[in-house]
Amino acid sequence: MENKKVTIDDIARELNVSKTTVSRAISGKGRISTATRERVMEYIQAANYKPNVIAKGLAKSKTYNIGFVMPGDYSLVDLPFFQECMLGVSEIASSYDYDVLISMVTENDMGQLKRLVENHKVDGVILTRTLVKDGPAEYLEANQVPFVTIGTSLNKEIVQIDNDHRSACRELTSILLMRGIRKLALIGGNKTHVVTQKRLQGFQDAFLEQGLSPDNSLIYMDVEHNVMIEKVVEEMVERQVECVICMDDSICTHVLNKLRKEKIRVPGDIKVASFYNSSLLESNIPSITSLNFDVKELGMITCRTLLDRMEGKTVQRRTLLGYEVSMKESTQNVL
Amino acid sequence: MENKKVTIDDIARELNVSKTTVSRAISGKGRISTATRERVMEYIQAANYKPNVIAKGLAKSKTYNIGFVMPGDYSLVDLPFFQECMLGVSEIASSYDYDVLISMVTENDMGQLKRLVENHKVDGVILTRTLVKDGPAEYLEANQVPFVTIGTSLNKEIVQIDNDHRSACRELTSILLMRGIRKLALIGGNKTHVVTQKRLQGFQDAFLEQGLSPDNSLIYMDVEHNVMIEKVVEEMVERQVECVICMDDSICTHVLNKLRKEKIRVPGDIKVASFYNSSLLESNIPSITSLNFDVKELGMITCRTLLDRMEGKTVQRRTLLGYEVSMKESTQNVL
DNA sequence: CTGAAAGCGCTTACAG
DNA sequence: CTGAAAGCGCTTACAG
Questions:
Q1: B222 occurs within a structural domain
Q2: The pLDDT value given to residue A86
C-alpha cells in the first residue's frame, strides 16, 4: 500500500548500479549478467515496483493504447454486439499490456477519433463496423495509423476480420428454400453498412444457386425505425409472406412484437429467422432460428491481429471467421 | 495530411523564440505579450500542430485518461445500461480533453483495474456499479486514486452518483398498492449489488407507508438465471400473485417469456412492472410499466464530477438523480 | 515579457 | 558486462 512512486532511479541508487542496468534487467534487452539481473529483479519484486508506462512510452514513442471505435448512434448503442466484442478485445489487450481507449463516433462526427490520433494517444485502432463510404477508415489510412476493421471492407488493402456473413446468410436462406419456402422476405438495416450488403448478397446467392430468383419487392432495406418496421410487417402479412429473415436481433424483436400485436402466429402464420443469437432473442417463445457468431472470439482475434501488425509482423489482409446456423421453432412447419 | 510530427522545438526554432515561450502561448500560463502569443498561435494553426499529450502528461505527472470500469460478467455485459452510460462519460471526457480507458472486472478478478492504476495509466476512475463488499472501491481508496461510483456506496466517504432507486421503487410500489393490489411480488438479482438492496428497501418502504407489511415469501432475491426465473414464475402463478415487479429488464424479459409460454395473460392474469425502460422492453406488447432513468445524463454528471474532483474542487459526496414512473398497459386493470 | 536549464521516468546508442 | 549521456516532447521554477 506504499504510494511514494519508486522510480528506476531509486532502484539504481539503492542497488549501486546505473539506471541503464536496471532498465536492461527489466526489459531483458542488452547484455547483462544473470547475477545482476536477478539482484535487480528481486529488489523490484520486493519493492513492488511498476515501471511508469507513460515514461516508457515517451522514450519509445509508443502509448501502449489501442483505440476501440464504436458507434455512438443511439440505435446501435443498444446492440450487445459491441460490448461483447469489447470484452474479447480488452482481454487480449491486457495480456499484451496494452489498454483499450474507447471512442464513440457517429456518421457525421468523428471528432473523438481525430482527437485520439492527433493527441497521439493510441498506437493502433480497431474499427468495429465498416461503411461503404468509410470516413474513419480513410482518415486512419491518410494519417498512417495502423488499424484493423471488424467487418468486411471493400478496400482490399485494409486489414479486416469478419464473420462470413455472406455465406451465413446464403446457408440460412438455402435451408429455408429447400424446405419449399418461396415467399421469402428480407428486412435489413442501414445500407451504408457493408455488413448489410454482404447479407443481402448471401440471400441472393442462395436463390441463384437453386436456379431461382428472389422477389425484389420482398427485400426491404434501410428499415431502421419501429414505425417503418411495423409498416413493412403489415405489408408482408398482407402479401402472405411465408418467412422473413431479419438482419439483426433488434429488427427481429420489433417484428415479433408487431406480429404479436396483430395476432399473427409464429411459425404458424409466418416463419421468422434472425441474425445473431443475442440476449435480445434469448428465451423467446417460440425460440428463434438464427445465425450464431462468436463475437467475443471475433474481438480477441481482431485485437491480436492489430497487435501483431503494430509490431510489424505481416498479417493476413482478410480473415473470415465461421458461423453456425441454428434452426429453432420459429421456422418449423406446422401441420 | 502531413505526418512528420512537429514539436514545440520546431516551432520555437521557426519562430525564433524559446520553447518556453511557445509552451506559454499554448497553455496561456505565465506572462507573455499578446503579440508573441498571437504569432505563435497563428503558426500553430497553420502547421496544424497538436501538442503531444503523452509528453505533457509526463511533465505534469498526469495521463489525461480516466478509467471506466464495467462488469465483465457475462450476465451483465448485455445490459444496455453500461454502454449508454459510457456514451455520456465519453462525451464529457472528450470535451475536457480526457480519454476513457475501459477496464472489465469480474467479481473474482480485478486484474485489469490493478494494471490500469499500477501502470499509472489513469488519473481517475469511474466504477459503474457498487457492491456491498466493494473490492474495487477499497483498492482504489487504498491506493489513493480519485474515483467516483455510479450507484450508491455504503461508505459515505466515497463520492457517489446514483439515481434514487429507493424512492423510485417506493413510488412505483405505492401506486400499485393504492390501486388495491396486495399480492405483490418482487424479483431481484444479485444481492451483493447495492442497487438491489436499495430497490428492495423502496419496496418495503411503500408497504410501511401505507401501514401494510410485505409478504416476505413473495420477495425473491438472487434470481439470476433463466431456470430460476422460470421456477419463480411458476410459483408466483400458483400462488396467484397479482403483480410482479422485476428489478431489471433482463429479468423482466424472461418473466414475460415464461408467462407467454404458460399462456398466462398480462395484465389480465398477472400484472408486470420493470426497472429501466431499455431497448429490451421497447415495443413489447403489452407495453411495460417501468421506471425510467436518464442513463446518459447519469454518465455525463458522473464524469464531470470525477473531473472536478481530480482538479481538486470539492464535490458533493452523494448526488441523487431523479427518475420517472411510467405507467403502461402491463399493470392496467382489466374489466 | 523572455529564456536557459532542469526535470518528468524511461530507453538506447556509444564507449569502455 | 556496465555506465554516462543524450533524448523522447513537454512544463516550470528561477533569473534576467
A1: yes
A2: 94
